[in-house]
Structures are given as structure tokens and as C-alpha cells.
Amino acid sequence: MSDDRPAAANGGGYTPMLGLAGEPGTHVATPGRWGWAAGTVFDQPEPEKLIELTIVVPARNEEDCLGDCLQSLVNQSEEIFELGKDWELVVVDDHSTDHTAEIARGFAGVTVLSAGKLEKGWTGKANAVWTAARKARGRWLLFTDADTIHEPGNLRRAIHEAQRHNVGMLSYSAGRLSADWRSGR
Fold first, then answer.
1. Which end of the chain, N or C, is less packed with Cβ atoms under 10 Å?
2. Could you report the per-residue pLDDT of 20-37, keeping only the tens digit for each?
3. How many CB atoms within 10 Å of residue 164?
4. Structure pTM?
């Protein structure tokens, strides 16, 4: 890979780094497919104590399915992998007009955040996950939709698979709630 790093707009060079640390808006270079790619580092202080996992559920007007999703997640808390101690569950209410936030607040151990102001060029979902990611305390981040159901053991299995294969990102599909299932048909 070439070490020809682009110069920053202010005349300085880029610092090669990955992550969300550093000065807000600091320009950096990250290894890319065709050499060094320009990027931006955002201000995110490291949490005092990292936990194993942060689950982020962006939700906008999801009152019909959020309860089932959260139940399938909180049910995965067990003595050796305890919600609130080893992992956290964060729902980001993206300006819902229904009972989404109230439903999320009804689950013990679930943190409910309000999505930040939607900046120009951002989608609501991207803004919601960014809001939570900046506050996350987990070594691993799991982003999931509000209309998913997670089978028992899925969370620990996903972490195990990522570690086993020494990867920084893992994508898998949880079960989705169908309209018929939600309505009890």
C-alpha cells in the first residue's frame, strides 16, 4: 500500500488512525483500497469502564413491534452475561409520534435516548445510530432494527464468531417480524 498521504486543507498532513478519538473534525488518512483515503475523526472520549457489548435499536414509530424485539433481547441476560453489567441495550427514539419511547421505557435495563437534531444530508436512521454510538460503552456494537427477533444466545454467539474469525465487523440476519405474526394470525 502506498504511503502517499494527501495533505490536509490547512496545509498539514493527515495522521493515520482509525476510530472515533481526537479533535472534532480533525482530518486523518485511513488505509483504503487504492492507498490512503481521507476521513474525519470525531470527538469521542473513551468510557471510564468498557463493557462487552452495546446494542443499539433505532426506532421511529415502531410501537407495533418494538416490545417483541426488546423482549427477545432482554431475555438474553443471564448470570454470565448480564444486562446492565456486561452489556447495555440502547433504544434511540427517532422523533416518534406513537408510543415507541413509552414501550422502550417499560423494559428494565433499557436506556432510551432521543435522536439528535437531523443534520443536512443525514437520514433519520443514520442520525439515530450515530447518537447512540457516541454514547456507547461496549467493546462491540450491535445495530439491529426494531422489527427483529433475536434467538436465545444470539448475542454471545455473534461476539464469539467475531472473535473466532478475528474480524472487526460481523453481519448476520436476525428473524424479522411479519405483519401476520405481529397481528397474531
1. C
2. 444 444 554 445 555 555
3. 8
4. 0.71
HSE-CB for 185 with a 13 A CA cutoff: 4
Beta bridge partners of 110: 89
| Helix spans in the chain (H) | 66-74, 100-105, 124-133, 154-164, 179-182
Please answer whether residues 48 and 137 qualify as being in contact, where contact means their C-beta atoms are separated by less than 8 angstroms: no
- The dihedral region occupied by 22, where left means phi > 0, alpha psi between -120 and 50, and beta the remainder, is left
Q: Give residue 76's pLDDT.
A: 96
- Cα 147 versus chain centre, distance: 16
Q: Does residue 141 contact residue 170 with C-beta atoms inside 8 Å?
A: no
Q: Which of 78, 122, 128, 139 lies closest to 104 in space, CA to CA? A: 128
71: nearest Cα among 84, 95, 89: 89
**Which of 142, 167, 168, 169 has its CA nearest to residue 156?**
142
Q: Smallest Cα–Cα separation from 143: which of 119, 169, 121, 117?
A: 169
